[in-house]
Amino acid sequence: MVHLTHQPTGQPHSTSPTGVAEDTGRCLRRGGFTLVELMVVMAIMGLVVTTVSVSMEAILPGERLNTSIRELAADLMQVRTEAISRSMEFRMEYDLDGDRYRIATPYRIGGGRIVTTDDPGDEELRFYSPWTPMRDGVALASVYTGGEIHEAGRVVVRFDALGSATDHLVIVSQPAYGNAFTIEVLGLTGLIRMHDGIVIRKPARDEDFD
In this structure, are residues 103 and 90 in contact, taking their beta carbons and an 8 Å threshold? Predict the structure, then answer.
């Protein structure tokens, strides 16, 4: 006897190795991205990169100025601390032409102490710290001391063993952005004050105390 099987019309069936019928007409799964999708992703990434770049350009200048101010203020306090702890005079030398500064110690190169601090011959043997440059775009604009504003050359200020210092103001600027900041070193205590913008204080006169 012959047994007939009914084959439904429509999509043909195939048999898998396990004997289970599979629909060979169903849609294949997609692999990867289309060109349009890739272009959209690239456009979004480009927008994000541009936004981040603009934000960093706005943030970095201010951060460079703040960093330079913090570093200089910290070094000034270090000079004062060294002078007090070692009971010797330390100095800070500003190079306005090079936008940099360094610490002048009371020690000789190779060892020993400089006793006559005003002898020009001793200055050649004095041990200095390496120069500390200001950050990119930041200038050591001027130093105001002794009633004079110095905008070029080198200016040396002193910190003594009692904590007092040469009364002076240091103007740090950012010319490209019109920013400026003033670090004030108080003569009597050697402590510092911070001022936003340019601040010039005239030295005290005898008649001011009448």
Answer: yes
Residues paired with 9 in a beta bridge: none
**Tokens representing residue 22 in the block:** 């599979």
pTM, entire model: 0.68
Task: Spell 80-110 as b/e; 16+ CB within 10 A means b.
Answer: bebbbeeebbbbbbbbbeebebbbbbbbeee
Query: Domains in the chain, ordered, with CATH?
Result: 35-209 (3.55.40.10)
25 Cα distance to chain centroid: 65
The CA-to-CA distance between both ends of the chain, in Å, stands at 138
Higher pLDDT, 3 or 195: 195
Q: Are 200 and 171 in contact (CB under 8 A)?
A: no
pLDDT for position 60:
58
Q: How confident is the model at residue 113 (pLDDT cuts 50, 70, 90)?
A: confident
Which tokens is 97 given? 């032409």
Containing 193, the helix (H) or strand (E) segment is strand 192-196
Three-state DSSP at 126 gives strand
140 in helix, strand or coil? strand
The pLDDT value given to residue 124: 79
Q: Please, are residues 186 and 79 in contact by the beta-carbon 8 Å criterion?
A: no
Q: Which amino acid is at 201?
A: R
